[in-house]
Design brief:
308 residues, 76% helix, 12 helices, MetI-like fold
Amino acid sequence: MGAGNDPPPPFAAAVQRDGMTAFWRTHQSTLVTVFLLLPALAGFFGLFFYPMLLTVILSFRPEGHEVGWTLENYTRFLADPDGRWVILLTFILALGSTALSVLLSVPLSLILREKVRGHQFYRLMILVPLVIPGLIGALGLLLFWGSRGWFNLFLLQFMPFVQRPVAVNYTIHGLTMFYVWLYFPYTCVTTMSALESLDRSIEEAGAVSGANRWQVLRYIVLPLITPGILAGSVLTFMAAFGAFSVPLIAGGNYRPLAVEIYKQISIPIPARWSAASAIAMIMGLLQVAFLTLYMRFVRRGGGTGGPR
């Protein structure tokens, strides 16, 4: 066909415009969704995916080399007794603080549910650790529980049988106590939410059926609020497992995994980035493994802690 048979330019532009309009009408929702997701995708790639990919690559890179692959960074840490102790210590602190958080949150939630005098103030105090930066909270706890802090000054002045300061800072039980103060609000808030959403008529029905207060609590209330307790406890565990500020300031020689990663970067010269990356990957795999076991336990228990 000759050039004279081509459509005139205005007609071609109109056809192209109509095609673009039809394409927009057909894919409008998809294009809008992609456009709205672009900031989130960019943030995910820049703040999570790329750093994670870089960490994985560095964990298999020989220390001090820019090329090559090795498992030495993993085997050296796992074969070292100090490395295994760091992993065990991290679990001891995380599990201990989680268990104590549950034991503290349940009775406290039951009390505050009854709207006792000043309950709004107590609820506010529960949230204080969530709004105070971890570093400031760690310094405050260190000063309060120190050998010259208010706690020991009170004991030495008003308790005649106490002859020396009680060691709290730089101990495992002290770290556990600090963890509980900092992370138990996660468990307490979810427990209170589950408890206050519970219909009291269910408890009244149990009481009418002849159950005493303990039986109502044991067989009705606790099974129904168990999902809230479990949800809060796993948040507490994950926060305690990755704790950094508190053990860095108040841990002394007790260094969990997060502090051990920082130590590998800050103390040696040059920094051991490959070793730190391997420890970070081990830490992440342990957290994923725990969450997997936790979810399997919840599904097996029916999500309520009682029989299905």
